[in-house]
Amino acid sequence: MPTAAQPLTGKVAVVTGAARGIGAALALRLAQAGATVALLGLEPEVLAETAKRLPGDPSCWNVDVTDQAALTAAAEGVVERHGRVDIVVANAGLGNGGWFAETPAADHSRIIEVNLLGSIATARAFLPALRRSRGYLLQIASAAALVPAPLMTAYCASKSGVEAYAHALRGEVALDGVEVGVAYLSWTDTDMVRTADEDPFLRGVRARMPWPANRTGELDPAADRLMAGILRKSAHVYGQPWVRALQFVPRGMVPAAVTRRSKKLLAPGKA
Asked: Mapping DSSP to helix (H, G, I), strand (E, B) and coil, where does residue 139 land?
C-alpha cells in the first residue's frame, strides 16, 4: 500500500532519456517514491548503471524515440513486464548552439526530430496504457519555449513545439482521465549544458545574459521540483522558481526584447 514516504507504491513510471541528467535524476526519485521504473534510452550500458542505483525492479529498454514502431513495441513490453503504466516522463532530447547559417541543416533537423517528433511519438506509444490507468504524462520543455534565445534556433523551435503540443493534447486526453504537464527548466547542470559551455563564445554570451538567466541551476533541486509536480500531476512545473515569472511576460513583447538584447550579446562574435 502507498505510504507518505512511498506514495507511488504499485505504480509504474516510464522515463525517456533516462541514462543521465534530468532523466536519471527523476528515475531515481520515482523509484524512491515506490514506483517501478522503466528506463528508456540509447545508451544501454549507461542505462544499466543507472538502473543499478534504483530500488525495486527497474527495467531498461534500448530504444530511439524517433522510431515509432520501436517505441510502440517498448510500450507493449513495459506493460507486459510490469502490468501497467501510470506515469510517463517525455524527457529525451538534444541541444546545440551556434549561428543558424553555419549549422548543418541535418543537425537542425535531428534536434527537431528528437525533441519534438520524439516526444509526440512517446505520447502516441504510451497513451493506450495511460488511458487505462488514468495516468499522467510530463513533457519536459524548457524556458526556451517561453523566451527563445539566439544561437539556439532549432532547440527553441523544438521546445516551443513540445509546449504547444502538450497543451493541445491535454484537452483531448482529459476526456479519458489522463493529465498532462509541461516542465520548464533554465540552464541546469547536466551534460548538455556542460557541453555547450565548452564553446568559449557561447559561454561568454551566456555569462552576459541578465541575472538569473546567466546562472546554471543545480540538478538535484530542479529534479526535486519536477518530482513534486509529478506527485501533484501538475499542469505546469518549474525546475527553477524564477522561471515561473516568465509565464507572466506578455508573449508579444518577447521578440523585440530578445532582438534588442541580442545585438549587444552577439556583437563580439561578429567582430
From this structure: strand
